[in-house]
Design a protein that fits this description.
The chain has 443 residues and is of the alpha+beta class. It has helices at 3-20, 54-74, 77-81, 84-100, 119-141, 147-153, 161-181, 184-189, 192-196, 211-214, 238-242, 262-271, 285-290, 299-320, 401-405, and strands at 25-26, 29-30, 32-35, 40-43, 46-49, 206-209, 280-283, 325-331, 337-338, 344-355, 361-367, 373-376, 381-383, 388-398, 411-419, 427-434.
Length: 443
């Protein structure tokens, strides 16, 4: 299978996964959803509210370390094999403009200008891709707005103007990158290309022209050597014609190269006529010079996976041990109350309950201290998913000899809040202090 076919297969899988993933839910929870509307993050089918965004830190660590690892191992393999910009360009240029509407003669020669005339085909290609861009922008939004909510919102455009503005902006960005900026986006706009060169070494896998077999085509000043043939390269320029970045890989590794390996496929076809291997391969500079194998395992390529694995395990562990409710306890400004008959002491607390589960639950609490009792609230209460409620809780204790012996020292209290309908799984414990006067004041 050629590299081109493998890339197309990869593009198809990436597209299908990106389209299907937002629709997959388990008990109403998504694999990934950062909802500003509902003020929550759903990750690995677990819900986190905005006060629990620590998983984003792990995700960012894994993302950046993953980029460093992929770049160190395979150069700009992301650019040629998974980048959305590359996929959009292939769909627009290779599929629509070339294969369907015939605006270019062949995808094997990307250097020839577009066919003159054919305005109807040009307009149709633009319109079809615009529709695709609208769908792609909507798909991106589904990772921030669930598809069900998205389609419900667009039925009421006047009430969701911001959604349509963002949708329009995303669509225009896709159109601008694929239709107007084209490959210039990779060279002049994308920040990744600016930093990737610092991550490469002589063992990094890249698209490399074998000068030992093929001979030098360019001199030290990147000037093409004319009238000289000291290798297997026949100077057919097939590798140049097919390049989407419009470069000549025989001049050495260049900033514009996206590791798509179209040039390797083109060279392989030519060299196959003489039963020889392609002069352009996915290999490393050291492997070319030593005529050996690529050294995949080295310090940097071994260190990155280890750190990424640790971060991923930590993320999965913390995700699976996450609570489904939040409880905050704050004391009232009044330290304590003494009953008129001097038989009991009351403390007032403001307890904020928040349901961060995906289901509605009935909540209540208990005090894990035999001397402290609940005066109010007396009955459990319901909270919808994502809903929070502040309850004024009054706790009291009888004045007895054991309390007087404490002589005003705060009594530690443990409040256990729980979902009445799932008490064993959904609960949380918080420590508080019960304040009362000293023994002299209670005489």
């Amino acid at each position: 299978m050629t590299y081109r076919k493998m890339r197309y297969a990869g593009f198809s899988i990436i597209t299908l996964v990106s389209l299907i993933l937002p629709w997959i839910t388990i008990e109403g929870k998504h694999f990934f959803l950062l909802s500003f509307d509902k003020k929550q993050l759903q990750l690995f089918f677990t819900t986190f509210n905005m006060s629990e965004l620590w998983p984003m830190l792990f995700l960012l660590i894994i993302l950046f370390l993953g980029i460093f690892f992929i770049t160190t191992l395979g150069g700009r393999v992301w650019c040629g094999w998974a980048c959305p910009q590359t996929i959009f360009r292939v769909i627009y240029r290779d599929l629509l403009q070339t294969k369907i509407f015939g605006l270019y003669r062949s995808i094997d020669n990307k250097q020839k200008p577009m066919e003159k005339g054919k305005w109807i085909q040009k307009i149709l290609a633009f319109v079809v891709f615009a529709l695709f861009a609208i769908a792609a922008a909507a798909d991106l939004l589904w990772y921030f707005i669930p598809p069900d909510d998205f389609f419900m919102y667009i039925r009421e455009p006047r009430e969701h103007n911001l959604l349509f503005v963002i949708w329009f902006i995303f669509t225009m960005l896709i159109m601008a990158a694929a239709v107007f900026l084209k490959e210039k986006f990779c060279t002049y706009v994308c920040p990744y290309v600016r930093i990737q060169s610092t991550m490469l070494d002589n063992d990094t896998v890249q698209t490399i022209y074998d000068t030992i077999r093929g001979g030098e085509i360019y001199d030290a000043h990147k000037q093409k050597i004319e009238g000289k043939k000291d290798g297997e390269c026949i100077r057919c320029d097939a590798c140049v014609k097919v390049c989407p970045a419009h470069i000549d890989i025989r001049a050495g590794m260049q900033l514009e190269c996206i590791n798509c390996l179209e040039c390797s496929d083109a060279c392989e076809k030519i060299m196959a006529r003489s039963n020889a291997a392609s002069l352009i391969n996915w290999t490393s500079p050291n492997a070319v010079q030593s005529r050996g194998k690529v050294k995949f395992i080295r310090f940097r390529t071994a260190a990155y996976p280890i750190v990424i694995t640790i971060a991923l395990v930590g993320l999965l562990f913390m995700t699976t041990t996450k609570k489904s409710m939040i409880l905050n306890i704050n004391r009232d400004t009044e330290l304590f109350r003494v009953s008129k008959d001097l038989q009991s002491i009351e403390n007032v607390y403001k307890m904020e309950f928040e349901n961060i589960d995906s289901k509605e639950h009935t909540f209540y609490f208990e005090v894990l201290n035999p001397d402290i009792k609940i005066k109010s609230p007396k009955t459990p209460f319901k909270l919808k998913p994502g809903e929070a409620n502040i309850k004024v809780a009054i706790l009291y204790t009888d004045i007895n000899s054991s309390i007087k012996e404490q002589n005003g020292k705060p009594l530690p209290v443990v409040v256990r809040a729980f979902a009445v309908d799932d008490k064993d799984k959904i609960f949380i414990e918080k420590k508080a202090a019960f304040i009362y006067p000293n023994a002299e004041s209670m005489r």
